[in-house]
Amino acid sequence: MIFNKDTAEKTAELLLQINAIKLNPENSFTWASGWKSPIYCDNRLILSFPAIRNYVRDEFAKHIEKQFGKPDVIAGVATGAIGIGMLVAEAMGLPFVYVRPEPKKHGRQNQVEGFLQKGQNVVVVEDLISTGNSSLLAVEALRAAGANIKGMAAIFTYGFDVAEENFKNAKLDLYTLSNYQNLLNLAVAKKYITEKEESTLREWSVTPSTWGQVETK
Prior knowledge:
10 strands; 40% helix; magnesium; glycosyltransferase activity; glycosyltransferase; Or_phspho_trans_dom
């Protein structure tokens, strides 16, 4: 669910402007999962553009407090959301921790890095939601450390049904600055893509795991 429609449209336009989101229906990208996709999203680029990272920071800070109340701690999911999560924590005057994909193999073997007390209210910041699996593993680690997770706030989501189901099963509210639907609407209105390309992009979103695969007999 998006925080706000105006924010969703503005965020989508900014992501397209800096090529954090690339749309290429003719020459698809291959994700780490092996999925073929006409869209690629790298929100880490936001950190290289001060005006845009400040916009994202401020929108997060405003909407997080409005939607979840002011938490005790902001947590970022490594590695993509460490930078923006820390900026949000700074803007809100809150402590910050981040969550590794898995515990370190040496030293204290931490998975949650930073100072976190049991029972503290935490909002998790993420950069991108696809299936939601890696994001929810971070939530599990925080819950195992005794945190009370108020919700997750992400920059962008593809809006896959599987992600919605995963968050529902995890009993966790997800809100985003923008999403795939608002991105496509904006891309068409601003002529980033043609109507034919829009049709391809919408087709992909229905069956992303099998889109673009060559059938073999």
